[in-house]
């Protein structure tokens, strides 16, 4: 029986070779897209899964009215909570940032690598393979350090396992030596914990650690099994709110009870995607879920093609079904037979899809900045189950449809006019075109929004400006400030350099400091989360930022450098002032000691610093040179001449690598490109959606072509009769295509509210967004009508060239 079924299947595949190829190609592409996004999702979910304590360790986040939700905690919050709440076994501090690197020196060798400033419990929380030394008390003192294998090899070569007890230095002004206590191997699995070296956090045990609002530590709790996490979160939140209330009263402020402090606990196995704040190397869960859903739609579209073509081929299989039923075949056997045929197509498509994924994976990894490999056995288990389920769902509808044919009708030839079959095919084709229209609408709206962002006036001119971040920094003895002044003077002498400025916050790189600012005359009038804008005096002139009122800083006036402030438009609007009322107003800022007020001397027009998906923050700018911000200048922003850009860049590089920071890697970024990175995420979404849209259209049009071919072939006798009666080619082509065009119009109209809802939700992520345009909906209709007409009319026109005798000889 099975042999007979296979024989019949291959005969039908060969007979309908075009639809078979289209089915396999469509399913392969659909599965390939789904698999690529699925493995990205699985890769993101796999972070910290290797940690044996992953179900007990929780990442701590704090939220308050001033700063929103932060990925950091205060020191007393960690230490006091451990003693106060029995549910907490222990805490760990792990201040580790992959982008922040430090240079270590051992003799003539050096290593520029990422660090982790941690508490002594670090190795109890996070598993590392010990290569040499001991993890016990490895970072118990300020002069101890543990190295990764890679760092140890860079510093000590092949003898790296014998480096225990030897010393290394951090390249700073302190010239302090650290004893190596352990060498560890970073986990091969996905993890955010892969530092080049680990040492005790230098602030642990110091006096400022008693402040409950000094959110400077990335903290984790190890919590006892069976703990009610929500209840513990409430206890921690109440504790933090009480401490913030005490400090507010101490400072003479009224505590905002409606927006009191909140503490959130997220398992480390989920923090990569589900952290409430920006987390630690947090992934973009929302985008992944959207793409996964869209790829599932593409897979559905491939299944629709299969169902539609199988039901359209019913006329070719109807008599076969009738004969098999007459000779005693049961309905269940017929269903199994047709399911087997569907499964064979799906299995071939599954193999082809994996081959396509393997070919596309290097490019896909480059796009995602990842190193995903097809080596997870769970992937094959999950996708194997998906193949079986998909085969059942996509095969069951046509199988039941074919198996339900009545022998008396099929053998008489009445099956072709079944209203049920026509309705089913039309419904499935409509669904297919709805999905296609939805993708077209979404792609056009996304394209419009990204173009709007890229072409909007940013409020500053950053062309031909490069930003060089200092690699070697030191927060002691005004080292950074002196370095900034020295390098500014020396780089300005390089041929091709036109101007230089600096600031503690660089355009396109986010903000490092924010605080509350009050009016000195009315302290109840305040703005929270004001960006601290310490800048060099020529900053606004350098970037050609326009003034709305007042003037720029003038070095001839000592008051300008000591207490002069320049606010942006957003700040004065939040204060309730207009651009003229703001001039002369005095400000009390949270970043200065009592008695040091700032006076507004100018108001600059709003300009973007961190991207257009977020609203422009209130900012207050002041000269860096006369206050605490002096040592926070960690970059040079250099404007170069357009005459010899490459030559100037080479001269700057030579100076930097030989005199400014020898021994450190050199890199720079053009400020306009640096800012462009703020919408890189959305450009990637645009690219992905455009790619998915092309895939959807190809699959839909292939299916439409195959379906129209089968249906038009069934109408060739009608075409022959019409031609015999004198109908011209245009009339015949229109008769054969108008039904498809009507289905297309209905499908687009149905897709419009879904597209509108989806894009309206997507646009909510943007502080500055386009108004929902009408033209993508109109263009979607026109584009699908044109494509449908072209695809169907091509086959319809060929139908008008048939041999009349062949189709009328039995009439």
UniProtKB/TrEMBL annotation:
The keyword Lipid metabolism does not apply. InterPro entries: ABC3_permease_C, MacB_PCD, Macrolide_Exporter_MacB. Its main location: membrane. Signal peptide: none annotated. It comes from the Bacteria. It is a multi-pass membrane protein. Residues 293-406, 693-803 form the ABC3 transporter permease C-terminal domain. Keywords: Cell membrane, Membrane, Transmembrane, Transmembrane helix. GO terms for cellular component: plasma membrane. The keyword Transmembrane applies. The chain crosses the membrane at residues 21-41, 288-309, 334-359, 379-402, 423-446, 688-712, 740-759, 774-797. It is found in: Cell membrane. GO terms for molecular function: transmembrane transporter activity. Residues 20-237, 433-628 form the MacB-like periplasmic core domain. PANTHER family: ABC-TYPE MACROLIDE FAMILY EXPORT SYSTEM PERMEASE COMPONENT 2, MEMBRANE COMPONENT OF TRANSPORTER-RELATED. This is ABC transporter permease. The lineage of its organism: Bacteria, Pseudomonadati, Bacteroidota, Flavobacteriia, Flavobacteriales.
């Amino acid at each position: 029986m099975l042999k007979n079924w296979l024989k019949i299947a291959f005969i039908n595949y060969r007979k309908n070779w075009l639809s078979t190829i289209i089915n396999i190609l469509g399913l392969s592409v659909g599965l390939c897209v789904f698999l690529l996004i699925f493995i990205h999702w699985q890769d993101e979910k796999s972070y910290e899964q290797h940690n044996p304590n992953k179900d007990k360790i929780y990442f701590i986040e704090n939220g308050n009215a001033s700063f929103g939700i932060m990925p950091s905690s205060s020191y007393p919050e960690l230490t006091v909570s451990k003693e106060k709440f029995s549910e907490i076994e222990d805490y760990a501090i792990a201040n580790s940032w992959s982008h922040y690197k430090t240079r270590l020196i051992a003799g003539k060798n050096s290593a520029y690598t990422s660090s982790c400033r941690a508490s002594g419990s670090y190795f109890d929380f996070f598993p590392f393979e010990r290569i040499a030394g001991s993890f016990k008390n490895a970072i118990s003192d300020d002069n101890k350090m543990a190295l990764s294998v890679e760092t140890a090899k860079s510093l000590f070569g092949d003898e790296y396992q014998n480096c225990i007890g030897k010393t290394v230095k951090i390249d700073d002004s302190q010239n302090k030596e650290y004893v190596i206590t352990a060498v560890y191997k970073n986990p091969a699995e996905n993890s955010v914990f892969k530092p080049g070296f680990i040492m005790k956090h230098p602030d642990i045990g110091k006096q400022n650690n008693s402040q409950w609002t000094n959110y400077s530590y990335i903290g984790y709790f190890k919590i006892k099994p069976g703990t009610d996490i929500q209840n513990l979160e409430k206890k921690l939140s109440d504790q933090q709110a009480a401490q913030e209330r005490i400090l507010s009263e101490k400072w003479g402020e009224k505590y905002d009870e409606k927006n009191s402090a909140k503490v959130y606990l997220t398992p480390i196995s989920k923090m990569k995607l589900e952290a409430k704040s920006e987390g630690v190397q947090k992934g973009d869960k929302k985008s992944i879920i959207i793409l996964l859903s869209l790829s599932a739609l593409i897979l559905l579209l491939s299944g629709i093609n299969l169902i539609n073509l199988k039901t359209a081929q019913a006329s070719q299989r109807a008599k076969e079904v009738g004969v098999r039923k007459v000779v005693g075949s049961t309905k269940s056997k017929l269903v199994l037979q047709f399911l087997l045929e569907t499964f064979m197509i799906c299995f071939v498509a599954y193999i082809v899809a994996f081959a396509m994924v393997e070919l596309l994976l290097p490019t896909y990894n480059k796009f995602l900045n990842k190193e995903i490999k097809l080596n997870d056995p769970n992937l094959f288990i999950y996708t194997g189950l998906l193949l079986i389920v998909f085969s059942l769902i996509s095969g069951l509808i046509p199988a039941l449809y074919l198996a339900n044919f009545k022998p008396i009708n099929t053998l008489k030839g009445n099956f072709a006019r079944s209203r049920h079959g026509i309705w089913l095919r039309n419904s499935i084709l409509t669904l297919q075109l709805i999905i296609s229209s939805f993708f077209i609408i979404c792609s056009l709206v996304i394209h419009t929004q990204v173009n709007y962002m890229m072409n909007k006036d940013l409020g500053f001119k950053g062309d031909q400006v490069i930003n060089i971040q200092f690699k070697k920094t030191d927060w002691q003895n005004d080292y950074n400030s002196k370095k900034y002044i020295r390098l500014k003077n020396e780089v300005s002498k390089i041929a091709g350099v036109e101007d230089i400025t600096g600031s503690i916050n660089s355009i396109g790189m986010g903000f490092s400091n924010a605080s509350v600012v009050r009016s000195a005359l009315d302290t109840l009038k305040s703005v929270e989360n004001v960006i601290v804008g310490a800048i060099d005096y020529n900053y606004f002139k350098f970037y050609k930022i326009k003034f709305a009122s007042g003037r720029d800083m003038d070095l001839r006036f000592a008051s300008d450098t000591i207490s002069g402030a320049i606010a942006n438009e957003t700040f004065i609007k939040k204060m309730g002032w207009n651009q003229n009322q703001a001039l002369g107003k005095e400000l009390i800022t949270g970043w200065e000691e009592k008695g040091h007020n700032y006076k507004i001397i100018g108001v600059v027009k709003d300009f973007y610093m961190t991207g257009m998906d977020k609203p422009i923050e209130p900012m207050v700018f002041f000269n860096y040179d006369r206050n605490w911000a002096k040592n926070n200048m960690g970059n040079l922003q250099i404007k170069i001449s357009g005459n010899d850009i490459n030559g100037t860049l080479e001269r700057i590089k030579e100076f930097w690598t030989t005199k400014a920071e020898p021994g450190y890697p050199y890199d720079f970024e053009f400020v306009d490109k640096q800012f462009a990175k703020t919408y890189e995420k959305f450009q990637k979404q645009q690219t992905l959606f455009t790619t998915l849209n092309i895939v959807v259209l190809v699959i839909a049009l292939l299916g439409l072509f195959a379906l129209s071919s089968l249906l038009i072939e069934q109408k060739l006798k009608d075409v022959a009769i019409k031609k015999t009666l004198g109908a011209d080619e245009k009339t015949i082509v229109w008769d054969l295509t108008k039904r498809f065009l009507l289905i297309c119009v209905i499908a687009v109209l149905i897709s419009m509210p879904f597209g509108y809802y989806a894009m309206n939700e997507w646009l909510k992520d943007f502080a500055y967004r386009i108004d929902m345009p009408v033209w993508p909906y109109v263009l979607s209709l026109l584009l699908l009508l044109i494509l449908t007409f072209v695809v169907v009319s091509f086959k319809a026109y060929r139908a008008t060239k048939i041999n009349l005798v062949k189709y009328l000889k039995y009439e």
